[in-house]
Amino acid sequence: GELDSIVTRPEARRQGHATRLLMLALDALRSAGCDWSLLVATDEGRRLYERHGWRCYPEPWRRGTVTGALPRSDGRYAVRSYDPRREPDVWERIAAVDMAFNHRRPLTVVRDAAYWRHFAALRISDWIDNEGLVIYATFRGEAAPRLCGYAFAEFYPPGFQVRDMGVLPQEPDATVALLNAVAAEAGRRGIPLSARIYLPREPQIDAALDSLFGPTLYAGEDRGHLMARAVGAGFTDRQLDAIFAAPSAHISAIDLF
């Protein structure tokens, strides 16, 4: 179960209200049969959660800079921007790719078409309108109707970031086509070709990033905001640690409150 923020008015702080709310939330999580709980803490709130058993976990990322020509893309793939608010059945198509790519991935929500239409669509539409998010989609040729993969990218004055991606397992080379398209758009906009990448560890993604960034590629992590706690009877901290430590584990910003 995921917790949203627990907030008290400034004049009501240090009176136990936040602790009481947190205990009520824990009771609700246990009643719902949750094994563990996830939240994103502010610097101010982190101490409250730590006192009640939540622990910090890393948020991995990779960074790199394109210093040469873009890697050669597979000519079988056509990539274009993809606005789900203006094209039919887009959420259903994205859901199908996402399900194929992520349905067994530790830490990733299993997102069906209804989840994309009714929850993710609201958040992603806000990112498109207010943060300049661009969704890229790749197909087998311009006329082919089948979506092979997608990537969510944002462009800023210091560089660009890729915050989510999915490709059909039988189309691993679509990864290179998508990353090339994002880097090419950054170049077209005249911004530095420096990137921050929030993608899971997968052979095709790792190879594509190595090819794109070469020796500039390095990995790191943010720590201090993502927190989790074992909740269910019989579910241990060791089991929770194993979920986060799984090689392909990935948390997407799409799913965080």
From TrEMBL:
SUPFAM superfamilies: Acyl-CoA N-acyltransferases (Nat). It holds the Pfam family Acetyltransf_1. One of its GO terms (molecular function) is acyltransferase activity, transferring groups other than amino-acyl groups. InterPro entries: Acyl_CoA_acyltransferase, GNAT_dom. Residues 1-73 form the N-acetyltransferase domain. This is N-acetyltransferase domain-containing protein.
